[in-house]
Specification:
Layout: E1 5-6, H1 7-10, H2 15-36, E2 60-64, E3 69-79, E4 88-92, E5 101-102, E6 106-107
Parallel strand pairs: 1-3
Antiparallel strand pairs: 2-3, 2-6, 3-4, 4-5
């Protein structure tokens, strides 16, 4: 069975410090979208009509990385067409806000 680690729980004393960066990431993301004239969608169903869940911009989610470490309290910033990014289509307020994440790494 895969063990998952909650990064924020393990680093509780740094939670507020870490989360304060999310606002900067969100601002930087929208500046990047405007500067690059990117096409960003507000709902997952706009890029994946057959998806069984419908995520929306502004929802708070948990992101789990490839090592099973999960990060709670992240905001969905937008969606792009998955074929452009190897199946990745969800933008989050992570420190790599410019890189979309896979849907299977997101939970509500």
């Amino acid at each position: 069975m895969e063990k998952k680690i909650n990064f924020y729980k393990e680093n509780a004393e740094n939670v507020e410090f870490l989360k304060s960066f999310n606002k900067d990431h969100e601002r930087n993301f929208y500046e990047m979208v405007k500067r690059r004239k990117m096409v960003i969608f507000n709902e997952l169903k706009n890029v994946m009509p057959n998806c069984t869940i419908n995520l929306k911009v502004g929802q708070i989610c948990t992101y789990t990385n490839d090592f099973g470490v999960y990060f709670t309290g992240h905001k969905i910033l937008g969606f792009c067409k998955p074929e452009d990014n190897c199946g990745k289509c969800v933008y989050l307020d992570l420190d790599c806000y410019w890189s979309p994440q896979r849907i299977d790494s997101i939970s509500i």
